Amino acid sequence: MRILLDENLAPRLVERLRDIFDFVHVRDAGLASASDVQVWEFARESGLTIVTKDADFEEFAMLRGTPPKVVWLRLGNASTSDVERALRRHAEALREFEANREAAVFAIER
Fold it and tell me: What is the bridge-based pairing of β-strands 2-5 and 22-25?
């Protein structure tokens, strides 16, 4: 699974989670301050799943379908460590989500 971390997530998660998935941060992809549409198109063209706290991507997925798929972190005001723990805790479910051709959004809540 190849994942694009949205701007609202810490770039250091790329290194911290490298052992479970292939991550890239929007900043490292040259998309710092890019619009949601630009991020969406980059993820679609690059075969990446978007991980975000932004509800807009969930709406895009419902309106436009996949690709890309969206992992929506509904964790509220969560620290980087909280985000890391949530992604690790759901790693197997995320693999199943990625394999499911019909699924567009996977929400992770507290």
Answer: parallel
Measured between alpha carbons, how far is 12 from 21 in angstroms, rounded to an integer? 14
Q: What are 95's two structure tokens?
A: 């693999």
Four-point Cα dihedral 44, 64, 52, 109, nearest 10: -130
Cis peptide before 11 (omega within 30 of 0): no
Q: Which two tokens stand for residue 94?
A: 């995320």
pLDDT digits (tens, 9 = 90+) for 72-103: 999 999 999 999 999 999 999 999 999 999 99
In angstroms, the CA 20 to CA 67 distance is 21
Instruction: Report pTM.
Output: 0.95
Q: How many residues does the chain have?
A: 110
Q: For residues 106 and 69, is the Cβ–Cβ distance under 8 A?
A: yes
